[in-house]
Amino acid sequence: MKCKVIVLVRARNETKVAKEFYKNKSIELLKYFKEELNKALNFIQQNPTTPPIENGIHFYIMPIFPYIIHYSLDIGKNIVYIYSLFNTHQNPIKKPKL
Question: Which of 74, 68, 59, 60 is nearest to 88 (CA)?
Answer without folding.
Answer: 68
